[in-house]
Specification:
272 residues; five-stranded mixed beta sheet; elongated
């Protein structure tokens, strides 16, 4: 009973703080008219000031905690330098982000993908520095992080991990330079990521020396494929390899062009 009373007291204290905060910011009003709405810049300034006040009341040295979480003063200095670099680069600054369309947001994300890639190239082989940059950019723009994760992580990772030497030589440079943009075609509508249940097939045609990729049922539709909707030009498609004699060789990966490189329209037979 004592613990329950203590927890209730703590919960009531939190609710009281929330109530005070809502009263202070005007959040208790159900609807704000646009004429009386607080400008975004003013709300941001208010939030920053409030965060500073909260930090000042901490029972521990905030700066030392920052060093501890970052792994040392040097890493904190590195991350803060990267934050300043982002703030000074117009590609990564969008004070009007509340007012842009979804298509405009996509365009900005791709621009940021290319700009960030140049920064990662500049970081070279310094893994700690590259990881710090990825962390800072992800905090700044989660949409960017998802896009780069699909292209460089999933698509390029599949090429690097599953491709032959010749395939890596042909496809990795184009992927790294963003000449092509990739997605990861594993998940199917009826099977999720259950690989043994995938229905999409890749049948080898001896006459043309090509693989015929086919999703024969609704449940075999490739689904929830990030970047496929608007951006990707190529996909690593997971499909069951069928030999000319009908033998099923199990799930393999196939590089499949999904959009024409000149028109950006879906390739023949590809429905998006």
């Amino acid at each position: 009973m004592h613990n329950n009373r203590k927890e209730m007291t703590m919960a009531n204290a939190r609710l009281s703080k929330i109530k005070d905060h809502l009263a202070e910011t005007g959040g208790n009003a159900a609807v704000k008219s646009s004429a009386n709405a607080t400008p975004f810049a003013a709300r941001t300034t208010h939030t920053i000031e409030r965060m500073a006040r909260e930090r000042a009341q901490a029972s521990f040295p905030v700066r030392e905690m920052t060093y501890f979480l970052d792994g040392g003063k040097e890493m904190t200095a590195l991350k803060e330098g990267m934050m300043a670099e982002l703030a000074a680069n117009p590609v990564f600054v969008d004070p009007d982000w509340h007012d842009v369309s979804r298509d405009q947001t996509r365009e900005r994300t791709i621009s940021r993908l290319r700009a960030a890639y140049k920064l990662l190239i500049r970081d070279g082989a310094d893994v700690a520095r590259r990881n710090a940059r990825l962390e800072i950019h992800a905090l700044h723009d989660l949409g960017w992080y998802v896009r780069q994760g699909v292209h460089f992580g999933l698509f390029m990772g599949a090429l690097a991990g599953q491709g032959s030497d010749d395939q890596r030589a042909e496809w990795l440079p184009r992927t790294m330079m963003c000449e092509i943009y990739g997605c990861f075609g594993m998940t199917e509508l009826g099977h999720g990521s259950f690989l043994r249940g995938l229905e999409t097939t890749a049948t080898f045609d001896k006459a043309t020396q090509e693989f015929i990729i086919n999703s024969p049922t609704d449940t075999s539709t490739k689904w929830w494929i990030g970047a496929a909707g608007q951006t990707a030009t190529h996909s690593v498609v997971f499909a069951r390899l069928l030999l000319p004699n009908g033998e099923d060789m199990g799930v393999h990966n196939f590089i499949v062009p999904v959009r024409d490189m000149d028109t950006h329209l879906p390739m023949p037979g590809v429905h998006i």
